[in-house]
Amino acid sequence: MRETPVPDLTYPPLTVAGLSEAELLERIFPRLNRGPETNDSLLLGPGDDAAIVAVPDGRVVLSIDTQVADQDFRLEWNNGYRSTGYDVGWKAAAQNLSDINAMGAHATSLVVSLTMPPETRVAWVEDFADGLTAGIRELGATQCSVAGGDLGRGSELAVSVAILGTLDGRAAVLRSGARPGDTVALAGTVGRAAAGLALLESGPNVSTLTREQRGLMDTQCRPQPPLAAGPLACEAGATAMMDISDGLVRDGNRLAAASHAVLNLDPAALRQLAEPLKPASVLLGADAMAWVLGGGEDHGLLATFAAGRPLPAGFTAIGSVEAPASTDGAGVTIAGRRAESGGWDHFAN
Amino acid sequence: MRETPVPDLTYPPLTVAGLSEAELLERIFPRLNRGPETNDSLLLGPGDDAAIVAVPDGRVVLSIDTQVADQDFRLEWNNGYRSTGYDVGWKAAAQNLSDINAMGAHATSLVVSLTMPPETRVAWVEDFADGLTAGIRELGATQCSVAGGDLGRGSELAVSVAILGTLDGRAAVLRSGARPGDTVALAGTVGRAAAGLALLESGPNVSTLTREQRGLMDTQCRPQPPLAAGPLACEAGATAMMDISDGLVRDGNRLAAASHAVLNLDPAALRQLAEPLKPASVLLGADAMAWVLGGGEDHGLLATFAAGRPLPAGFTAIGSVEAPASTDGAGVTIAGRRAESGGWDHFAN
Question: Residues that bind Mg(2+) 4, according to the entry (chains A, B) (predicted)?
């Protein structure tokens, strides 16, 4: 993985206001869909009014997600780090690939819309395209191509990605299928991105971070959703699944509500998840367990499986599904006690 | 078509900052996919990590487009008009449906991402959902469902829509197939949205507009792309096609470049297109022909057909395709003379 972007040595730096849309697209296209893999599903790529993508099994899994500067990521952080275009492109890929993963599908194509202030540097946009391409490839979504996009001007930087996936003939894993007795399991990490966010917002200067701390920061800036785990869980008969983007408890509450069930989490398993975050929590005077329960953006998978069945590779048991005591009793508990929600809501204060 | 939104009589008005994301979604969902038609292609609608859409012919046509307040539309205009949420929802639908139309396909589903400042009124968002739904239905895209979406916060209002379409087994009509001798034809209108924009930006107060002037303004705020014409042109063997979103000459140059051809437009046909815009151009001291040649956003269709074949319903001949005199000679001419580009570029000044 590349750590730093190529510096822009022109002065004054070339900005998007200095190029036409066509000139900017000419700089972006060659940076997309690079790599050793060939992708047969992209029947018509960028450049016409729309793209055409093959959908062999007759159904497409479809999602859209937008990231806005200073809401979903910062361009400049308190600890001195500056998000690169590469980071933003990677994160846009990761976040959307994760939604497809959470259905048990794998991604076949995406389209991206980039809204930019006119003073945005062209080198930043090129770096964004590189990060998008690298995220797709390095996260293992080798069947996913960038089918097209849209460039526009705005006063704040924003990235929208819509993504398509295929289930290869399988049934999707929804949020609503968890049943009492099922095992609750997790793939990927939780809390690392939240720890990274805390380091970026109030930690020591980025230049002094240890390798371990830098790793936490990278999980915030370039998340690593476990893309193999979604289709594996689907094949293994997962009864319900979703990705954790707003926090384990908040997203767990959503899965629990959709399934009319209680997800009762095991405190010992949660403590084990918090353990590797201890050094950073001590450094920052923070609570590692709050990161585990409330931190989103690692894009791990929360899934349920019928009891007694072996969990697929990458999943660890963290609790069990129980019947709610009352009709409005669905939600997440920890050793039987209702968990505080925490986590991220775009609007509620 | 509803002309005015329901007024918000609560005080202080309820804003999106006063609701959680879930509460806001509860207000939006019932407003989507309303109408008499049932749509079998939406296999899984909003509410999970992703939607699932049926794709009977094994290929999906795919596009994405973003509109940003004060770039692609204004919330308050100089003539006193205020864009309603209904307008913005309608325009988002129209613009994206047009991209699918331009491939010769019809839309099957879309996903929408809405980025809003926290002070956005909830009534505005509800109105947006109504306008999106009405745009889809009243423009005739009755097979198109809203499959899902994303809500987020930002400092400026922005709407991204990604849309899927089907070709029903036909080959798509690309921009690159125009051949010397073909007839150049137009479906829908050109110049009306530009005239409407001029009225909104420098015309008389909205309350004093005539019915005809108000109609021009409506073409800017609620475009009427000719959605039947795209699939008809495809069936009739159109050799090339695109929608006119940035202006007849600018988009014509793109089609010409993709086809390595010259689109030679007929001055008499152009004058006929300018004729109905004369009263507004006289009122504003503007040039009706500049609106015809440079105005985008009507989302008419520019297409080419083999000579001598009858044009499908809705299309009018406006010129013919010629071979370029040199390798870099592709472009739009009027009676053999190179046309000035005009039109809209997001970045170039």
Answer: 49, 63, 99
CA–CA dist A104, A263 (Å, integer): 20
What value does the mean pLDDT take over residues A35-47? 79
pLDDT digits (tens, 9 = 90+) for A301-312: 999 999 998 999
Residues in B closer than 8 angstroms to A64, CB to CB, are 111-113, 148-150, 160, 162
Q: What is the mean pLDDT of chain B?
A: 92
pLDDT tens, B250-278? 999 999 999 999 999 999 999 999 999 99
Per the prediction, chain A carries an average pLDDT of: 92
- A177 lies in a domain? no
Residue A121 bridge partners (DSSP):
A15
Closest residue, chain A, to B246 (C-alpha)? A21
Q: Is B158 left (phi over 0), alpha (psi -120 to 50) or beta?
A: beta
Question: Which residues on chain A are in Cβ contact (under 8 Å) with B16?
Answer: 347
Choose among B230, B24, B4, B112: nearest CA to A348.
B24
Q: What pLDDT was estimated at residue B340? A: 79
ipTM for the complex shown? 0.91
Among chain A residues, the shortest Cα distance to B240 is held by A48
Beta-carbon separation of B21 and A61 below 8 A:
no
Which residue's entry shows tokens 């745009």?
Answer: B135
Q: How far is A207 from chain B (nearest CA, A)?
A: 30
Number of neighbouring beta carbons within 10 Å of residue B172? 22
Alpha-carbon gap: B150 to the closest alpha carbon of chain A (Å)? 6
Using one digit for the tens of pLDDT, what is the confidence trace for B294-330?
A: 998 999 999 999 999 899 999 999 999 999 999 889 9
Strand partners, B152: B115
Q: How many helices, marked H, and strands, marked E, lie in chain B?
A: 10, 13
**Residues A111 and A254 placed together within one structural domain of the fold:** no
- Pairwise CA distance, residues B69 & A38, whole Å: 39
Residue B243: its chain A contacts at CB < 8 A?
A: 49
First-last CA distance in chain A = 37
Q: State mean pLDDT over A262-287.
A: 96
Burial of B102-117, coded b for 16+ CB within 10 Å and e otherwise, reads bbbbbbbbbbbbbbbe
- Cβ atoms of residues A104 and A233 within 8 Å: yes
Identify whether residues A199 and A323 lie together within a single domain: yes
**CATH number where A48 lies:** 3.30.1330.10
Q: What's CA B187's distance to the chain center, in Å? A: 13
Sort A289 into a burial class: Cβ within 10 Å, 0-12 / 13-18 / 19+.
Answer: middle
Strands of the B315-322 sheet, one edge to the other: B240-243, B301-305, B183-187, B315-322, B262-265, B331-334, B337-338
Write out the residue range of the structural domain in which residue A152 sits. 16-166
A58/B58 Cβ within 8 A: yes
Count other Cβ atoms within 10 Å, centred on residue B243: 28
pLDDT per residue over A195-242, tens digit each? 999 999 998 899 999 999 999 999 999 999 999 999 999 999 999 999
Given this model, what pLDDT does residue A1 score?
43
Question: Which CATH number is B288's domain given?
Answer: 3.90.650.10
